[in-house]
Design brief:
Number of helices: 11
Number of domains: 3
Distance between the termini: 155 Å
Structural class: mainly alpha
Largest sheet: 3 strands, antiparallel
Strand content: 5-15%
CATH architecture of the largest domain: Orthogonal Bundle
Shape: elongated
Strand order of the largest sheet: 3-5-4
Number of strands: 5
CATH class of the largest domain: Mainly Alpha
Order of helices and strands: HHEEHHHEHHEEHHHH
Radius of gyration: 33 Å
């Protein structure tokens, strides 16, 4: 009887590397789907050692980005084109895509009972049309259990202060709509600035992998700069506007009051005209 051949021990994976099975467990994907991603050009090929293919953190990041982009409504072909245009820098585009989708400011929404919100607004009951108005402006969200989610507590507090001064909720909401329109213009101005001055030169240069961090840093730094610039410009224009309004009010107040003609003087003038 010939002696049994002993199985060769499995080769140890290089540091930081993982097999396709380990990648599947790490990402929650099936091996079949990972191979399908490779076929579609969504995932780079593994690094081969001997006869075994090994994957690393860049493959994990690429799979996570693909999922995020699918969640944004992109199909796999569109995702492939975006990834292909990144010049192979999966980590760079992952970081940039996450920075783009990150909220501008991390403000935690607050939940109000319907009667709590009515009390804060100084009314017996919040009208449904006013809630729908707030939803359209992106300020409120009516929940299934009848509660209301206030997406910007800071804006809500400002509204409550106006109501305390005697402004109606409807008037405050209308003012918020005007502010939103102006804010959208400011947002577009900064977006155009970023695209024209930063993204387009980067894109024309072929999106070099070493410059992805610089582009992301520019995006991150422009966020607070936009807020600071908007606040500074608002303070200037608010000061000028109130100064002009104040001057006009003082000029009106300095004019002598118009005297009302008495009915007696009218009658006396009428008698004088009859005598003549």
């Amino acid at each position: 009887m010939s002696p049994r051949k002993q199985a060769k021990p499995k080769a140890k994976a290089p540091d930081g590397k993982m097999t396709i099975g380990e990648l599947a467990r790490r990402t929650g994907m099936t091996i079949r789907n990972i191979r399908a991603h490779q076929t579609r050009g969504l995932l780079p090929p593994p690094e081969v050692h001997g006869r075994t293919g090994y994957y690393d953190e860049s493959h994990v990041a690429r799979i996570e980005l693909t999922r995020e982009m699918q969640g944004e409504g992109l199909n796999l072909e569109a995702i492939r084109r975006v990834l292909e245009s990144s010049g192979g820098s999966s980590q760079g585009i992952v970081d940039f895509a996450r920075a783009v989708r990150a909220p501008f400011e991390d403000e935690t929404p607050e939940i109000f009972e319907a009667d709590e919100l009515a009390k804060a607004w100084g009314v017996k009951k919040v009208e449904p049309k006013l809630l729908r108005y707030g939803e359209r402006l992106g300020m409120l969200r009516e929940l299934d259990d009848g509660k209301v989610e206030v997406l910007s507590p800071r804006l809500e507090r400002a509204g409550q202060e106006l109501i305390a001064l005697g402004v109606s909720p409807a008037a405050g909401m209308a003012t918020a709509e005007k502010l939103r329109e102006h804010a959208e213009g400011v947002a577009r101005a900064y977006l155009d600035l970023f695209v024209t001055e930063i993204w387009e030169p980067f894109d024309k240069a072929g999106q070099p992998a070493e410059d992805w961090p610089k582009v992301r840093e520019a995006l991150d730094r422009m966020r607070p700069l936009a807020s600071d610039a908007l606040l500074a410009m608002f303070q200037i224009t608010m000061g000028e506007t109130t100064e002009r309004a104040g001057e006009q009010t003082l000029q009106e107040a300095g004019k002598p009051p118009r005297r009302a003609k008495s009915s007696r003087s009218k009658r006396s003038r009428s008698k004088s005209s009859r005598r003549s």
